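The instructor's notes for this session suggest beginning with a concrete chain rather than abstract definitions. Hand out the sequence below and ask the class to guess, before any prediction is shown, which regions might be ordered.
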Amino acid sequence: MANHKSSLKRIRQDKIKTLHNKYYAKTMRNAVRKLRAMTDKDEAVKLYPEVQKMVDKLAKTNVIHKNKAANLKSSLCKHIGKLA
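After discussion, reveal the predicted structure:
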């Protein structure tokens, strides 16, 4: 167990940040799943900028790695390109 006041506070803060990061990461994953499940190209093209914005924000705040963000965006673009 932590002995210092500052380490106790750090533990409390980390719990809150972890919950916050998990929420936004899960929201982003659900949005990616939703986009991948789409079969209509017009709807997918409309949704893509929102998903891209989410992914970029999470990469900027180090919730996900910047390369993972790039890979996600690339694979989603390929998916949208294949839609008829």
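Then share the key points. The chain is about 85% helix and 0% strand. The longest helix spans residues 5-37.
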